[in-house]
Amino acid sequence: xxxxxxxxxxxxxxxxxxxxxxxxxxxxxxxxxxxxxxxxxxxxxxxxxxxxxxxxxxxxxxxxxxxxxxxxxxxxxxxxxxxxxxxxxxxxxxxxxxxxxxxxxxxxxxxxxxxxxxxxxxxxxxxxxxxxxxxxxxxxxxxxxxxxxxxxxxxxxxxxxxxxxxxxxxxxxxxxxxxxxxxxxxxxxxxxxxxxxxxxxxxxxxxxxxxxxxxxxxxxxxxxxxxxxxxxxxxxxxxxxxxxxxxxxxxxxxxxxxxxxxxxxxxxxxxxxxxxxxxxxxxxxxxxxxxxxxxxxxxxxxxxxxxxxxxxxxxxxxxxxxxxxxxxxxxxxxxxxxxxxxxxxxxxxxxxxxxxxxxxxxxx
Length: 364
Description:
It is a single chain. The chain is an alpha+beta fold and about 375 residues long. The chain folds into two domains: about 15-75, no CATH class; about 95-360, no CATH class. The protein has eight helices and seven strands, in the order H-H-H-H-H-E-E-H-H-E-E-E-H-E-E. Helix 4 packs across helix 8 (about 280-310) and helix 5 crosses helix 7. It is globular. Residues about 320-330 and about 345-364 have low confidence and may be disordered.
C-alpha cells in the first residue's frame, strides 16, 4: 500500500539535533543522522584522508558559528550546556530554594489586563491552558526559578550604587563638551545622574531609600507573557521570525502611568512538561537565568520610567545609555536558534556584573 500523499519519511537525527536543530551547511549535507554541529569532533586512530578532511571542515564550521571556538574547546571550558554534567545533582541553583519572592514581581503582578483586541496565547502541543503566570500553575512553575533569581537580585538592589543614583534623583546638566557626537543635534536639555559617595549610598539611610523607592515605584509596574514576534498593543505580527525577536520590552502609559513589562514566553516553552525532561541541568539553568536577566533588565526600565515621570512629568525622556545590558559582558548567545530547534540557546554564557558611573537622558 503506497504511503499517504502527505506522509514524509522522518530522517533520523542525533540526540543534540533533536533539541538544537539541524545545521543546514554544505559540510553536513547528506550526513545521516542529521547533525547539530555541537558535538566535539574526535578522530579514531588511522583515520582516512576523507575522515580527517571532514573533521577539519566541521571544526572550521564550529569556529565560524561559535565565536572562533570549536565544540571541543567550549566543552573543556565548561561552556557547552548540552555536554555540561557537573551539576547534575541539582546543587547549582535549587529551583525549590527558600528565596522569598520580591513584592515587585509577585504572582499577582503577572496578570495585567490585556487590551480587548488581544487574546491570551495558548500553551500549545498537548497542554491545556494559556501563557498567564498568574492564573496557570504550569506556567508559574516554569517561570518560578527565574522569578526567584530576579527576586534575589532586586532584594539586594540597595547594595548597588546604580539604584541609589537613580532613586536619589540628583540630576545634573551634561556639559556640551561631553555630549556624544551622534547626539549633537539634540544636545539641549541633556541631563544625567551620577553615583553618590560610597559612604552615602552605603549608609543605612541610603539603603533604606533604595528599598522604599523600589517598593513605591513598583506599585505601578506589571508583567505579562506574550509572543516576542507580536506587537504588545495590537497583537499583530511585528517581527519577522527570520530576523530574530525581542525578549522583552517595557511600555508606560501616559494615561494610567502604569508600566507594563512584556516578557517573551518562547524561551520558557522549553521548561514546560513534555520538553523539560529532555534537558539537562545546565540547559534548564541556561533558560532560567536568561529569563531572569530579562525580568531584571525590563524591571530596570520600568523603574526608570516611573522615577523619570515622577520628577520630570512634562518631558518625554529617551533612555540613551540604559538600552545597553544592565549586566556587562557578552549580551548574546554564541549561536542563534535554528528554525527547528527546541531550545533557544546553545552554548552557555558567562554573566559578568559591571557597574556604570552615570546614565544620560534626553529631554524633548
